[in-house]
């Protein structure tokens, strides 16, 4: 059957190969959301015929993306059927996060399990883009080698960076906390790689952390939430109805540069009183009377966590002050987007027990709908690895959305 295009022109009949690719994506997505699942239940859930399901399942089994999992109970007539589940060794993604306080790389399999993790902690602000990206490339090289040792075929590499990412050009336009402007991150990484990589993609770290939480954090796949990622900087990823909201040019989510104190301290972005200057890790440590984060985040957090656990007044007050500033920014996002859940990631996940109450107080006061629609605040399920995991899962989500796509050679 022909269809009309939006401008009135005739389109060619739908290609049967495209239909099959669509159906394969539907089958695989159903396994992701509902598996393990039998072929019969798959047909009922997707509306496809049993013959179509059987043929597509055979292809996905041959491709190593599905595996047969035990035996399901029979319902009605016929023999019990074999359930279908994702094949954890069928594909993997590599994710690397480049952040102010260190570098992290992970290998994640098709089931979302982290199979390899390596980190290079330390302050990256004075190293320069070339040195930082050379170190990041070494971590990815090692991750690819680890995946090969585990017999995991790597589908792609995701790269998470702080700041404004031009998704079309795949360039980091500006990262104030690193002091980087117009850095072609992927081009540099490719130049520093010791061996050729599979396809790679660049994105903002808070966006990838939000996607990591959406895909692997136990959230409603069609739900809405805001993830606030905190380290030296503060970023946000906004998920609406199961989809990341990026803004018109993909530059959304820069919560850390929302002005919450117009006469506050200067920010590296050139403005004053940005949220991250009164809620980021550097500010919290200074207010608590502790040394700045010059090494690993774990080393910086350890004395802070010890101090708040001991109920030391200055440390507790510093975290509560950051929570109140965070509450102002979070309330603005909730009022704008009407989300019902706020997820705190990065170091905010570690500090959640002390951030929770003061942040809730501010949000309940500033969110107009709070008396009728309370906002849930919770720590990120993936902790500080959310961005790296989200980066690794991105190529796997692309695979599951089109598992029968023709392979594209990557040089």
Put simply, the count of helices is 12
What do the pLDDT scores average to? 86
Q: Cα-atom Rg, whole angstroms?
A: 23 Å
What fold name stands as the CATH topology of the largest domain? Nucleotidyltransferase, domain 5
Please tell me the total number of domains: 3
At CATH's second level, what is the architecture of the largest domain?
2-Layer Sandwich
Enumerate the spans where pLDDT stays under 50 for 5 or more consecutive residues.
1-13
Tell me what portion of residues adopts beta-strand conformation: 15-25%
Task: Give a structural overview.
By secondary structure, the protein is α/β, with parallel strands linked by helices. The chain folds into three domains: 16-86, Orthogonal Bundle (Arc Repressor Mutant, subunit A), CATH 1.10.10.10; 92-209 and 388-401, Nucleotidyltransferase, domain 5; 219-380, ATPase, nucleotide binding domain (Nucleotidyltransferase, domain 5, 2-Layer Sandwich). The protein has twelve helices and 15 strands. It has helices at residues 16-34, 39-46, 50-62, 129-149, 185-192, 205-216, 281-287, 297-309, 313-337, 347-350, 352-366, 386-401, and strands at 66-69, 83-86, 92-99, 102-109, 114-121, 154-161, 164-166, 171-175, 180-183, 200-204, 225-230, 234-240, 243-245, 341-346, 376-379. A five-stranded mixed β-sheet has the order 5-4-3-6-10, with helices on both faces. A five-stranded mixed β-sheet has the order 13-12-11-14-15, with helices on both faces. Helix 6 (205-216) crosses helix 12 and helix 7 (281-287) packs antiparallel against helix 9 (313-337). The protein is globular, with a radius of gyration of 23 Å. Mean pLDDT is 86; it is low at 1-13.
